[in-house]
C-alpha cells in the first residue's frame, strides 16, 4: 500500500493492528507497571540486600562505611532496573523477540557485573588500609597498583569474550590468537619480562624497601625507588644508579638497615714498655666503660689483650651499639674513643705508633781531627 507516494509494507499494518488490540494494550500497561515497580523500588531492594550483607560484615567487625558495598551500589541498582526492563519487554513483545531479548539481557548483566567487579578493584586499590586489614598483613604499596591493572585487564577481557560468546561468535580463534600473540611478545621482550617478574619477586619477597641502605657487588647506597623494571639506588656520592631488577635478584644483597645493632671493632696498640699490671687495669677500665654505657649492647662485649705486634701490644675491642642510625653510631663511637683515651692517660700508658729501633753491635769510634 502507498501513502503519499511512499510504499508501506503490509507487515506494518499487521503489527499496527496487533498493538492496537485490547489484549496487547493490557500487556503494554502491565509492562509499564513492571518497569516502574522495579525502577521505583530499586533503592529499596538494594538497601535491603545491603542491609543483610552489612549485618554479616558487622559480625566480622568490619566498618561498613569503608566497605566495598559503596563501590558496587550503582551497578546493583542498574541491574535491578535491567531485570525490570527485560521482564517488561518480554511481556509486551511477540515471542519472536525472545532470543534477541535474552542475548541483550545476558550482555547487560555481564556488563553490570563486570562494572561492579571493576569498581571493587578500583576501590581497594585506592584504600590500601582495608586490604591490609582483610589479610592482616602489610601489603606492599607498589604491588597493589600493579595487581589492580592486571585484574582490571582480566575483567575486561573475560567480559568481552563472554559477551561475544553470548551473541554466538566463535571465540576459540580469538583466544588462540591471544596465545600466539602473547608468545611472540614474550620472545621479543624477554629481558623486559625478566625484569618485570624480578620486580614482582622483589616487591613480594621484600629484601629491601625504599629508604634502606644496601650494598651489592657493584653499588652501595640508599634505595630511592622500586618499580617493575628497575630499582634506583642513590649512591653516597649522590649519583643516582638505575639497576635492572633481574640483576638485583641474582646478586647477593647486604641490607644494612635490617640490622638491629651496629658493630664496632678495632685494635689499640700500646707501647711495649707498658707493665703487665697497667695493661690489666686498662683492660678492666675499658670493659667497665662499655658495660655501663647506655647505648652499648651488653650481650657481646670483648676487651682482650690480643697479640704482640711488631711495634705494639695489641688490645682487641669488639662490641655493638644499640642504634643503627649513622650519626648516632658515630657519636657513640666518638664517646667511647674519648673515654678510652682518658683511661690510658690516667694510667700513664702511651699509644704506640709504627717505629723501627736500630741496634748497633760495635760502638762507633769518634776521632777528633786536629788542625
Q: Please state roughly what percent of the residues sit in beta strands, choosing from under 5%, 5-15%, 15-25%, 25-35%, 35-45% or over 45%.
A: 15-25%
Q: Assign a percent range to the helix content.
A: 55-70%
Radius of gyration: 41 Å
Low-pLDDT residue spans: none
Largest sheet, if any?
Answer: 5 strands, antiparallel
Number of beta-strand segments: 10
Which structural class is indicated by helix and strand composition?
alpha+beta
Cross-sheet strand order for the largest sheet: 6-5-4-3-7
Number of domains: 3
Q: What is the averaged pLDDT score?
A: 78
What is the H/E string?
EEHHHHHHHHHEEEEHEEHEEH
Overall body shape: elongated
| Number of distinct helices | 12
Distance between the termini: 159 Å
Q: Can you put this structure into words, describing what you see?
A:
It is found in: Cell membrane. InterPro entries: LSM_dom_sf (IPR010920), MS_channel_1st (IPR049142), MS_channel_C (IPR049278), MscS_beta-dom_sf (IPR023408), MscS_channel_2nd (IPR006685), MscS_channel_C_sf (IPR011066), MscS_channel_TM-2 (IPR011014), YnaI-like (IPR045042). Pfam families: MS_channel_1st, MS_channel_2nd, MS_channel_3rd. This is Small-conductance mechanosensitive channel. Residues 149-190 form the Mechanosensitive ion channel transmembrane helices 2/3 domain. The protein has 371 residues and is of the alpha+beta class. The protein has 3 domains: 2-182, no CATH class; 208-258, SH3 type barrels (Roll); 262-347, Alpha-Beta Plaits (2-Layer Sandwich). Helix content is 55%, strand content 16%. The protein has helices at 10-19, 22-40, 42-59, 73-92, 98-126, 128-135, 143-166, 172-188, 190-205, 245-249, 276-292, 326-347, and strands spanning 2-3, 6-7, 213-215, 220-226, 230-235, 240-244, 254-255, 262-270, 296-308, 313-321. The strands form 3 sheets. It has a 5-stranded antiparallel β-sheet. A hairpin with a 4-residue loop joins strand 5 and strand 6 (240-244). The longest helix is centred in the first third of the chain and has 29 residues, at 98-126. The radius of gyration is 41 Å and the shape is elongated. The model has no long low-confidence stretch (mean pLDDT 78).
Amino acid at each position: 500500500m502507498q501513502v503519499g507516494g511512499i510504499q508501506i509494507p503490509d507487515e506494518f499494518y499487521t503489527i499496527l493492528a496487533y498493538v492496537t488490540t485490547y489484549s496487547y494494550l493490557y500487556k503494554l500497561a502491565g509492562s509499564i507497571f513492571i518497569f516502574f515497580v522495579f525502577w521505583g523500588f530499586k533503592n529499596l531492594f538494594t538497601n535491603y540486600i545491603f542491609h543483610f550483607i552489612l549485618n554479616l560484615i558487622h559480625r566480622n567487625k568490619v566498618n561498613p562505611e569503608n566497605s566495598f558495598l559503596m563501590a558496587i551500589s550503582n551497578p546493583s541498582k542498574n541491574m535491578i532496573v535491567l531485570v525490570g526492563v527485560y521482564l517488561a519487554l518480554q511481556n509486551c513483545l511477540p515471542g519472536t523477540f525472545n532470543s534477541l531479548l535474552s542475548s541483550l539481557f545476558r550482555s547487560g548483566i555481564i556488563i553490570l557485573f563486570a562494572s561492579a567487579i571493576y569498581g571493587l578493584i578500583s576501590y581497594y586499590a585506592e584504600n590500601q588500609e582495608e586490604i591490609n586489614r582483610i589479610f592482616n598483613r602489610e601489603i606492599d604499596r607498589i604491588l597493589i597498583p600493579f595487581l589492580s591493572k592486571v585484574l582490571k585487564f582480566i575483567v575486561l577481557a573475560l567480559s568481552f569474550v563472554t559477551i561475544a560468546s553470548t551473541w554466538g561468535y566463535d571465540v576459540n580463534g580469538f583466544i588462540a590468537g591471544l596465545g600466539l600473540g602473547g608468545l611472540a611478545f614474550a620472545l621479543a621482550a624477554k629481558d623486559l619480562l625478566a625484569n618485570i617478574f624480578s620486580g614482582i619477586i622483589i616487591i613480594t619477597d621484600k629484601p629491601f624497601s625504599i629508604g634502606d641502605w644496601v650494598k651489592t657487588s657493584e653499588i652501595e647506597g640508599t634505595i630511592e625507588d622500586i618499580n617493575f623494571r628497575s630499582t634506583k639506588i642513590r649512591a653516597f656520592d649522590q649519583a643516582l644508579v638505575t639497576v635492572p631488577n633481574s640483576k638485583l635478584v641474582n646478586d647477593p644483597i647486604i641490607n644494612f638497615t635490617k640490622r638491629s645493632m651496629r658493630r664496632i671493632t678495632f685494635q689499640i696498640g700500646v707501647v711495649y714498655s707498658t707493665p703487665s699490671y697497667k695493661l690489666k687495669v686498662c683492660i678492666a677500665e675499658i670493659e667497665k666503660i662499655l658495660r655501663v654505657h647506655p647505648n652499648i649492647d651488653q650481650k657481646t662485649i670483648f676487651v682482650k689483650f690480643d697479640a704482640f705486634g711488631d711495634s705494639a701490644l695489641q688490645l682487641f675491642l669488639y662490641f655493638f651499639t644499640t642504634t643503627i642510625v649513622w650519626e648516632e653510631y658515630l657519636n657513640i663511637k666518638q664517646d667511647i674513643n674519648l673515654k678510652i683515651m682518658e683511661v690510658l692517660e690516667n694510667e700513664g700508658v702511651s699509644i704506640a705508633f709504627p717505629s723501627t729501633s736500630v741496634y748497633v753491635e760495635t760502638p762507633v769510634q769518634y776521632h777528633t781531627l786536629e788542625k
